[in-house]
């Protein structure tokens, strides 16, 4: 039994690319409930097992899933932390610009 | 799709005044940071500091007079370095200022402290700015 781990960083671009695809969002939604194998996912989603494997590879590159070998089966579980980080960066930076631009507008109106 | 923050605002001023608001330290101190060292010259170092102790240092990358300023900056301790681009365009009623900011590095999976002031203050700013930011 071994656990795929990432101790470096996940490319935030990969996170957003991963989330842009509706099938991958469906995979994430399903894995949020329980860890599943690629075959099990393919049985529930309207895509082939090969397509599921490709989507899982993209999610793995983004750090959004981790593979765990159990006997002859590899199961994937959701690791949502990178999603949170990217969203958190955008929310935090965006809110700061909202504040700054409000002050900039006030300054501009002073003439 | 890279994570991007994109904001726009229309200021009731001409391009020359808008450029001054974005590039003169005395103006920047009115809206961006409490201490500002910035020169609109490619390669010039920049430094901004806030009363809460946050310090950001960086570099001016690209300057197009009265049109565009691009720089990179980062928090000295914990922040994610990023690239910021300000663009000035003519708009009905004045000048549109566009801000685009993107991280320069992959965000870490764990343990990154993203510096920000309390959410309550942010959300107040957000609500204030909502009325001002062009759709």
Count of DSSP H/I helices of chain A: 5
Query: How many beta-strand segments of chain B?
Result: 7
User: How is the largest sheet of chain B built, in terms of strand order?
Assistant: 1-7-6-5-4-3-2
How many whole angstroms does the radius of gyration of chain A measure?
Answer: 19 Å
Q: What is the overall pLDDT average of chain A?
A: 82
Computed Rg of chain B: 15 Å
Largest interface: A-B, 38 and 45 residues
> Percent helix among the residues of chain B?
10-25%
Tell me the major beta sheet of chain A.
3 strands, antiparallel
Question: How many distinct beta strands of chain A?
Answer: 3
Tell me the distance between the termini of chain B: 21 Å
Taken from the alpha-carbon principal axes, the silhouette of chain A is elongated
Description:
The complex is a heterodimer of chains A (111) and B (135). Chain A has 111 residues and is of the alpha+beta class. Chain A contains 5 helices and 3 strands. In chain A, strand 2 and strand 3 form a beta hairpin. The longest helix of chain A has 29 residues. The N terminus of chain A is likely disordered. A 7-stranded antiparallel sheet of chain B has the order 1-7-6-5-4-3-2. In chain B, strand 4 and strand 5 form a beta hairpin. In chain B, helix 1 packs across helix 2. Chain B starts with a strand and ends in a 5-residue tail after the last helix. The relative contact order of chain B is 0.19. Classes of the chains: A alpha+beta (111), B alpha+beta (135). The interface between A and B is large, with 38 and 45 residues.
Outline of the structure:
Chain A has 111 residues and is of the alpha+beta class.
Can you tag this structure with a few keywords?
heterodimer, A: 111 residues, alpha+beta, 3-stranded antiparallel β-sheet, 5 helices, elongated, B: 135 residues, 7-stranded antiparallel β-sheet, 3 helices, globular, disordered C terminus
């Amino acid at each position: 039994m071994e656990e795929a781990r990432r101790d470096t960083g996940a490319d935030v671009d990969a996170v957003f690319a991963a989330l842009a695809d509706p099938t991958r969002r469906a995979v994430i939604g399903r894995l949020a409930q329980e860890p599943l194998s690629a075959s099990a996912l393919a049985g529930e989603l309207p895509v082939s097992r090969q397509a599921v494997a490709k989507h899982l590879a993209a999610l793995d590159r983004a750090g959004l899933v981790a593979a765990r070998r159990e006997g002859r089966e590899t199961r994937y579980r959701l690791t949502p932390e990178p999603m949170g980080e990217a969203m958190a960066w955008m929310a935090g930076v965006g809110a700061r610009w909202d504040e700054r631009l409000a002050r900039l507008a006030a300054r501009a109106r002073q003439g | 799709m890279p994570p991007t923050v994109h904001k726009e605002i229309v200021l009731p001023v001409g391009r020359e005044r808008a450029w001054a608001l974005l590039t003169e330290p005395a103006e920047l101190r009115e809206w961006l940071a409490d201490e500002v060292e910035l020169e609109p010259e490619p390669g010039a170092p920049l430094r901004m500091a806030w009363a809460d102790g946050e310090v950001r240092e960086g570099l001016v990358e690209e300057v197009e007079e009265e049109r565009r300023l691009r720089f990179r900056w980062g928090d000295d301790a914990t922040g994610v370095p990023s690239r910021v681009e300000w663009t000035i365009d003519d708009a009905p009623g004045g000048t549109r200022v566009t801000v685009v900011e993107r991280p320069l590095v992959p965000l870490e999976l764990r343990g990154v402290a993203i510096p920000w002031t309390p959410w309550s203050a942010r959300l107040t700013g957000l609500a204030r700015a909502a009325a001002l930011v062009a759709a």
